[in-house]
Design a protein that fits this description.
about 450 residues; alpha+beta; Glutamine Phosphoribosylpyrophosphate, subunit 1, domain 1; Rossmann fold; 2 domains; seven-stranded antiparallel sheet; six-stranded antiparallel sheet; 16 helices; elongated
Length: about 450
């Protein structure tokens, strides 16, 4: 999916792991798909002040693992795409704080919907904020160097989405919001522990997956091992549906479901719900490929490589002007003419946001000689903004929020257009609950607006 949704952020932390800095570098590289704007690491050496290295750019350019490693066997890291707060260096995580002579650091994935309310209250009490990120709110709620119950009390005051890592001189805390919006898992590496936004990052460093952090849970690791604390008993398993549809890597497992398997099954159900007479099936790289596999298998049609991605072209969605984004789609995707010429083509993509990308793909395939182009989308219609960490700011930018299905089909120039149902999305993951607010406007939280 190009020229569309902004990714979220990713967090990675280690406790009692040799070469902690380089281990975190490797983990963050595996989470680079979750944020390409900035990254950082804080390490806690056995003695002395924690060490920080962070900056704007990709992991390999900011945190070169071949450079002199920061000391310490305990560290947390973060990759960022700005959803809350600006893009300046003050907002690059992890954040490091000092209270009563002791240090702690935090890294956060997600958005807090009551952040402005909490900031205003803290400011009236004399708190000073050094960034515009909602993540700094956590530090002011801790009111000192955090411990297990203090973190729990603070988390009961925030509302919204978070996968949160907090590191002190003697412990690493991994915290997940009560709705389970953001994924977070923990693994074992030798005598130490590893926590990450996705299980693919555990695999990258050789850690053994233990389990997902549960909604409303804090897991603390330290010299005494691993301890669990439930800060909320009122919980949901409302994982953001876009984690399965688009954000997470195909080799990650989230809450017992492999992401590739989910996408492949969503493609199968998409055919079941929306069959069409065609000759071949193609997927839009990369997140449409697994669903295309499932659709083609169910339809009994050849799965072909009809679109090729140029991996060395910059990301189109960060271009400042619409015409630049549209040009970026053409540079990043190329049709395979010999494959699509004269064929009735089913194109599988994960979602439609503005419609810009889909329109360009349809035109591109027709120009390459496709006889028919049928767009099949492996998610429901995007109708509403997200307030939990995906950068969909207004309904006005969403094609399907302002158009009927037939109007959207005409807008992108396809012969037909169809979407996966909400029921089909749940069936694909054998789930009873997901956050689908961007599809149905049913927000799990108060929006404090």
């Amino acid at each position: 999916m190009f020229g569309s949704l902004h990714e979220e952020c990713g967090v990675f932390g280690v406790w009692n792991v040799g070469n902690a800095y380089r281990t975190v570098c490797t983990g963050l590289l595996s989470l680079q798909h979750r944020g390409q704007e900035a990254c950082g690491i804080v390490t806690f050496p056995p003695e002395g002040k924690p060490r920080v290295r962070k900056g704007a750019g990709l992991v390999w350019s900011v945190l070169d693992a071949e450079e002199e490693a920061l000391p310490g066997a305990c560290a947390i890291g973060h990759v960022r795409y700005a959803t809350s707060g600006g893009g300046d260096t003050d907002n690059i995580q992890p954040f490091l704080f000092r209270s009563a002579g002791a240090y702690f650091a935090l890294a956060h994935n997600g958005n807090l919907v009551n952040a402005e309310l909490l900031k205003a209250r803290a400011s009236r009490s004399g708190a000073l904020f050094h960034s515009s990120s909602d993540s700094e709110v956590f530090a002011h709620l801790f009111a000192g160097v955090p411990d297990l119950r203090g973190i729990g009390a603070a988390l009961n005051r925030v509302d919204g989405a978070f996968g949160l890592l907090v590191m002190t001189g003697d412990r690493l805390y991994a915290c997940r919001d009560r709705y389970g919006f953001r994924p977070l898992c923990i693994g074992k590496l030798g005598e130490g522990y590893v926590v990450a936004s996705e299980s693919c990052a555990l695999d990258a460093v050789g850690a053994v997956f233990l389990r997902d952090i549960e909604p409303g849970e804090i897991v603390a690791v330290g010299a005494a091992g691993m301890e669990s604390y439930r800060f909320s008993r009122s919980v949901r398993h409302a994982l953001c549906a876009m984690e399965y549809i688009y954000f997470a890597r195909p080799d990650s497992d989230i809450e017992g479901v492999n992401v590739h398997a989910f996408r492949r099954e969503s493609g199968r159900i998409l055919y079941e719900e929306n069959p069409v007479a065609a000759d071949i099936v193609i997927g839009v790289p990369d997140s449409g490929l697994s669903a295309a596999m499932g659709y083609a298998r169910a339809a009994g049609l050849p799965l072909e490589t009809g679109l090729v991605k140029n991996a060395y072209v910059g990301r189109t969605f960060i271009q400042p002007a619409q015409e630049m984004r549209e040009a970026g789609v053409l540079m990043k995707l190329s049709p395979v003419r010999q494959v699509v010429r004269g064929k009735r083509v089913v194109v599988i993509d994960d979602s439609i946001v503005r419609g810009t990308t889909s329109r360009k793909i349809v035109r591109m395939l027709r120009k390459a000689g496709a006889a028919e182009v049928h767009m099949k989308i492996s998610s429901p219609m995007l109708l509403s903004p997200c307030f939990y960490g995906i950068d969909i700011s207004t309904e006005a930018e969403l094609l399907c929020a302002r158009c009927s299905l037939d109007e959207a089909c005409r807008a992108i120039g396809a012969d037909s257009l169809s979407f996966l149902s909400e029921e089909g999305l749940l069936r694909a993951g054998r789930r009873t609950d997901l956050c689908m607010a961007c599809f149905n406007r049913q927000y799990p939280t108060d929006l404090y607006r």
